[in-house]
Amino acid sequence: MPQPRKHQISLADTPYYHCVSRCVRRAFLCGEDKYSGKSYEHRRQWVEDRLLLLASVFCIDVCAYAVMSNHVHVVLHVNKIQALNLSDYDVIERWQKIHKPTELVQQFFTNQNWHTLPENQKEAVTNAISTYRKRLYDISWFMRELNEPIARQANQEDDCTGHFWEGRFKSQALLDEKALAACLVYVDLNPIRAQIATSPESSMHTSIKKRMDTFQKGYQPPSLMAFKQGPSLKQQNQLPFTLVDYMQLIHFSAQRFRRCAKNKIVPPTIVKTFGKSESVWLELVYNFENVFGVAAGESESMERFRQNTGRA
Questions:
Q1: Closest C-alpha to 305, from 76, 18, 295
Q2: How do residues 35-55 score in pLDDT, each as one tens digit?
């Protein structure tokens, strides 16, 4: 039986979550159906474009993603403090990128006759803005806004009705840096694991492909959560490793997916920092979803998560 969402999300324990949405019915989200010969490859761009749009709307950062043939992986970072610090105008400006606000809220946003509104209407505007603000750091709303438009487009293209996605997306809380790093690598290397790409550089519609493309130009992609700039710097709202360390980790880990790799890559320093042996680390990033359930991390953090979420 699926776990209630309150048993899967605990911002007191971690802002990082790995989410997976899978298709129902055997039709493809993307890729090519080998039986009918029909290509759905263009839908990958639908998903990627929508995902990066939502990153500019929500106070939820996209850390990693991979658009597969019948499912989508994302690693998200919830920035609740950012949402709470937004002005009312900022909240409305963000929300109206994906939904039309109520007429009263639009009047407030354009400052038309606000002071002449009766108190009950002002209260309605305040309540609406409060609702929008909470949604801006709600993972369930983020995934809903990712999945529903894609489902409508796909159903229209397939000339059918009914559910396109499974009713609930899978969520894994990433409770420490080791779990976060392993999950990021697992997601970024999914196309290689599925044998639809031979290298991170050729993994289309993934965050690692986007990061590598921009790295060559000397910057990090603004649509993705940035890696920290130096090994000793503690910047806010940045991933806790440097991009150089992460790219070394990616190339090292990719050899587990490419079993016939000729030249064995030496484990990068970051693997030793995590206290993992080479074999344990490579097995972890290969089978991450199967190793962990609703939460991933060391035993102490896992126990704290269970207590905070009320899980048995």
A1: 295
A2: 666 777 888 899 999 999 999
